[in-house]
Design goal:
Elements: H1 3-10, E1 17-18, E2 23-24, H2 36-42, E3 46-50, E4 56-63, H3 69-72, E5 81-86, E6 89-96, H4 117-123, H5 128-143, H6 149-154, H7 169-177, H8 182-189, H9 202-210, H10 214-226, H11 232-251, H12 259-301, H13 303-315, H14 319-338, H15 342-355, H16 360-368
Antiparallel strand pairs: 1-2, 3-4, 4-6, 5-6
Helix pairs in contact: 8-12, 12-14, 13-14, 14-15, 14-16
Amino acid sequence: MTKDELEEVRALSSRAGISATHFVNEYHYGSFRGDERELMEQLYDAHLYFANWGSRRLMLRLPTTLLPARNAEPYCAEAALTCWTRKGHLLLDFSYEAEDGGEWDFETSFTLAFFTTLRTELAAGDLRPLYLAWLSALTRWELEADVDEDEYTHAIEPPVPAGLARLTGPQQALADFLHVDPHLLTAAARASGAAPSQAIDKDALTAWIRALPPHEKDTLLLDTALGTAPQPGPTLLARHSAAARRTAEHTTPTRRRSAAELLDAAHEVRSEHTRQQEQARAQARRAERRARESHLNRLAENAEQAWQDIARLIGQKQPSPYDAAVTLLKDLREVHDRADTPEEFARRLHDLREQHRGKPSLMRRLTNAGLTTR
């Protein structure tokens, strides 16, 4: 930013960390006096806001030559994403408002670095961040009590971008930021093809550049020579990638589903996930029982050695060995119960307590573990 622009933003806050490239502030009381929309329209390319009561906002600005408004508008949903143009730029406003009565979150934190790469992805024609915002809106829409079920049937999803099954790091961060239901995302990804390769096809890029209008090439070279515009390389690569994505999407069109279909599919995914979790827990319980049975069988075969180990542990007169001795005694009690010899265990436990009655710490542990005699 210029010196005058820096002075302008410094007037908005006396505590913010301000440089020619960023403006950072943290509020414990009060709020920002400036207008974030105006600052984005005039000065900045990215804006991040989040509060510990759950409200979140991310704004990104891109040249309309890289991402025209008509490409973003199908994904806009009032609760999660709005867009508008200003002075040759498209501005995207991602937001999430916490429900009333929600729990405050003092642990979660974000930095703008999580999300800045999204600008590059969007410029290259990767519209997955926009689709994630639409899914976030659908996630919240489902929770509203006053929505007529017919509305879900008539609401149709926007074009489904490729690669939803394998999000990039920044895209996953955005999904978390906007609280996208992971089961809904899984269901949506079923209609999404594989993400295009990030490798640059030099021959295809050469052919694409050769096809550019001569006057456009002349303008790019002139701006580069005069230094009146950013270096054209990244912009050209982004435009080429976007063109390649559009070609791929046109050759593999997919049927667009209704909100009702997506929500039903998400319910199936959620039910299957729950079933798999229950199966996994059941398998874990069976494995624990088998391990327990094996342990008790070995202990039954070496019961006398176990009693000797208990005497050795108690003889150390320390808290940890006492705890280990109590655990071993509880296992031995179960071994004798299985062998239908509880009286023998009770007799030996009585003798042990009598022998060590002068050790109050041990006695307390035995009593707390229910290892008492009548």
